[in-house]
Design goal:
elongated; mainly alpha
């Protein structure tokens, strides 16, 4: 029985290396989601700063493959934060303005600049949560 387990392990490792592991590919998003980011109010420059360089994104749009996992994660991060900001602040316009202005609760940082990292996005989301529950005005 242990031979079967050992024989199966290389196949799983090969799938993971090839990016065909179903558990990983479930989190990859199509390049068309980049257009959704534009419709949410993110500029091409902002998307390139957070997700990947413009030339890379242009190549990705021409390919039928989904975005790599790291780029997919960044796309989902921008969508998640925008949806949270819109829900808390009431409109997409207010959310877009809020994301681009220095924020006292973030020690003067501009929320959009913090979205380049997951830890920065966590802090932005935390401030939005505080606004949502009346801790900041």
């Amino acid at each position: 029985m242990s031979n079967n387990i050992q024989a199966a392990a290389p196949a799983v490792d090969e799938k993971a290396r090839a990016g065909t592991n179903p558990s990983v590919s479930a989190f990859k998003v199509p390049a068309s989601r980049l257009e959704k980011l534009k419709s949410l109010g993110f500029s091409a420059g902002e998307i390139a700063e957070v997700v990947a360089p413009r030339r890379t994104l242009d190549r990705r749009k021409k390919s039928p493959k989904p975005l790599p996992l790291d780029e997919s994660d960044r796309v989902l991060r921008l969508e998640r934060i925008m949806e949270h900001a819109e829900r808390v602040l009431g409109t997409r316009e207010k959310a877009n303005l809020w994301l681009r202005r220095p924020n006292r609760a973030l020690n003067g940082a501009i929320p959009m600049e913090l979205l380049k990292s997951e830890s920065g996005a966590f802090h932005v989301s935390e401030v939005l949560g505080h606004i949502e529950f009346g801790m900041y005005s």
